[in-house]
Amino acid sequence: MYLSHSMRWMLRAFCAAVLVVLYAPILYVARLSVNTATNYAWPPSGFTLEWWRKAIDQEGPRNALLHSVQTGLWATAIALLLGTLASFALTRHHFFGRNPLNLFIVLPIALPGIVTGVALLSGFQRVGIELSFMTLVIAHATFCVVIVFNNASARLRRLSPSLEEASADLGADGAQTFRYVTFPLMRSALVAGALLAFALSFDEIIVTTFTVGPGFRTLPLWFADNFSRPNAIPTVNVVATFVVIASIIPVWLAQRLTDTTETFSH
User: Which of 7, 79, 113, 239 is surrounded by the fewest CB atoms within 10 Å?
Assistant: First the structure.
């Protein structure tokens, strides 16, 4: 489609404005994390790493970070197992109810977080399960499965079945074919899915609020609890900056893996 010179410049200006609106507040919070003042006044004054040192020394953020990592790792492990199995079942096999089942698997990522949280809380209470670390992991796994499932399904659709058929013709059984043929070709997609699932779990707060056990605080929950405390503003800025950086890294790695992976066509 041909665009005039003025239209191209208008699109560039619009894209630049959108990027400024999206990322300027994040950069501002990052700047405040090294600000000498203890408020949100503009312009920021001075430069110091004192707030970062204090945040590292505080037990609250450290415990919250550990809880977020633990939850994310467990949820990602469950998502890898269930998401991979579901992708094989729905991509390589045709059976009655296949399309509705596919919808049910991807639905948690489309529903508002508050709906998912309330539904899970109601379900746990209905069967008499008390909120705990495991209920939180299960809740996070429900939407992490979708990420792994989508990545694995997309890769399986691009893999030529002739590769697995050739492996079977050479005498390999199903396990050997998966180990030496299918899994190496899917490995980068699974790693990318796991990284994205962990990033999604790491900064989830809405579902966490409804399914977390008493006394257990993840990093986003700690951030929400301390955001309105004036004395905690510098530490909150540090934690917010750290969460952004920690979320960007796995997403960037997943994007790199996706971009550098070889694609296979049928």
Answer: 7
Q: How many CB atoms lie within 10 A of CB 109?
A: 16
| Domains: count for the chain | 1
In a domain, 154, yes or no: yes
- 203-248 per-position pLDDT tens digit: 888 999 999 988 888 888 888 888 777 677 778 888 888 878 877 8
118 Cβ neighbours under 8 A, 6+ residues apart: 210
Distance of CA 198 to the CA centre of its chain: 5
Q: Residue 109: inside a domain, yes or no? A: yes
Contacts of 99 (CB under 8 A, 6+ apart): none
Neighbours of 126 (CB within 10 A): 8
Q: For residue 90, what are the domain limits?
A: 62-260
pLDDT at residue number 138: 93
What is the length of the chain?
Answer: 266
Phi, psi dihedrals of residue 93, rounded to the nearest 5°: -135, 150
Is 233 inside a domain boundary?
A: yes
Contacts of 71 (CB under 8 A, 6+ apart): 133, 136, 137, 140, 201, 218
Residue 129 included in any domain: yes
Cα Dmax for the chain: 71
CATH code of the domain covering residue 73: 1.10.3720.10
Tokens of 14: 């619009």
- Contact status, residue 238 vs residue 64, Cβ threshold 8 Å: no
* Residue showing tokens 């949280």: 117
DSSP structural state of residue 34:
T
